[in-house]
Request: fold
Amino acid sequence: MTILKLKKSQWISAGKKAGWMKTSDYIPIGSQSELKKEVTEFLKANDFSKLREWAKEKGHKEEDLNRIVDEMASGFVDFYAHGKANEKGVTPKDVNKEEFNKGKEIEKEHTNNEEIAERITLDHLGEKGKEKAKHSKYNTHLLNMEKKVEKNIEKKEEKKKE
Reply:
């Protein structure tokens, strides 16, 4: 994966045109101003192209909106440009294909964006470095752990019923 040097707005525009980015994929989580919360809620339900019209109707200043959009785009660019996979040079070719596919499915609980799910999966599989990425069983272990937790919960619930 090559990271191109583009302006934040170009990243968003290119990603949306290519179909690999939806607005909800680059909305950062964390402390947000009231305007940022409003924009986030709007973008969850509406197309990005309608944002400026909506903001104008609401009486928001254009410079405030630009600052919020810039912050959101920065969050996405930061996510996309960093991470263990980039740091350690891990690509999909370097990991076990079965683990990679399991990981993508697991990460889809957080995003409907295939590329973001892949990026997160690569970060997990590449945590120990490129040479160990091929042998990582991160997702197999994660699924096994989740099954054990579910069994323990079921056992506790059965004991409560007794």
About this structure: The chain has two domains: 15-81, 95-162. The mean pLDDT is 80. The CA atoms of residues 23 and 48 lie 6 Å apart.
